[in-house]
């Protein structure tokens, strides 16, 4: 009696699932966010940073760029488009955008320099940590890091508005910025611990 061949599973028939290509919609949105940074800076400093229309346009460019951060992450996770390029480029794009906003606002005198310095040291320090451990593994954004990004985005958006000097808007912006600075420092310390543990685990001999 001839035994009919067993039907192979779809996975066996097609072979192991290949890693998603870096050329995808999610990464394209990340690159778009990087491209919007110089446009945002130009709008912010046009006419010496004066004029309500300039500040509104700069705020709009900032908001559009920030929104792409939400969409690229959702698309990447939903459609299995998470790549190492995206894990590295996404936080760099975020830091380029928020860094331009922090520095620009401080140059214009709207935000104290100590706030910008504290945030920049943490942000680029974490980026350096990611490259420090990249041989041992990719360190993606943590949940606390995402909360930090949201708080920074809201605070910066309020500071960018042309009427941020109005009392209600001003103190709301100050409250969000204060929360953002605290979370920024706390998550920065957490990233240092994660990086140290990741390197230690990679160097630990196998049993």
UniProtKB/TrEMBL annotation:
Its EC number is 2.7.8.5. Keywords: Lipid biosynthesis, Lipid metabolism, Membrane, Phospholipid biosynthesis, Phospholipid metabolism, Transferase, Transmembrane, Transmembrane helix. The chain crosses the membrane at residues 25-44, 168-189. Pfam families: CDP-OH_P_transf. The gene is pgsA. It is a multi-pass membrane protein. This is CDP-diacylglycerol--glycerol-3-phosphate 3-phosphatidyltransferase. The keyword Transmembrane applies. Belongs to the CDP-alcohol phosphatidyltransferase class-I family. It comes from the Bacteria. It is found in: Membrane. It is an enzyme of class 2 (transferase). It comes from Kribbella alba.
């Amino acid at each position: 009696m001839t035994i009919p061949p067993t039907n192979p599973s779809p996975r066996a028939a097609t072979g192991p699932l290949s890693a998603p290509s870096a050329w995808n919609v999610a990464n394209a949105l990340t690159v778009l966010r990087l491209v919007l940074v110089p446009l945002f800076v130009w709008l912010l400093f046009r006419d010496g940073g004066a004029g309500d229309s300039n500040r509104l346009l700069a705020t709009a460019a900032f908001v559009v760029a920030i929104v792409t951060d939400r969409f690229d992450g959702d698309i990447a996770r939903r459609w299995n488009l998470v790549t190492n390029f995206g894990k590295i480029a996404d936080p760099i794009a975020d830091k380029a955008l928020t860094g331009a906003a922090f520095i620009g606002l401080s140059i214009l005198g709207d935000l104290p320099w100590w706030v910008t310095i504290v945030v920049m040291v943490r942000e680029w320090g974490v980026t350096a940590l990611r490259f420090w451990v990249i041989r041992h593994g990719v360190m993606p954004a943590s949940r606390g890091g995402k909360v930090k990004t949201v708080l920074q985005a809201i605070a910066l958006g309020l500071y960018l508005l042309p009427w941020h000097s109005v009392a209600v808007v001003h103190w709301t912006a100050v409250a969000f910025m204060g929360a953002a600075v605290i979370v920024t420092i706390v998550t920065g310390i957490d990233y240092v611990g994660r990086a140290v543990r990741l390197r230690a685990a990679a160097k630990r001999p196998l049993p």
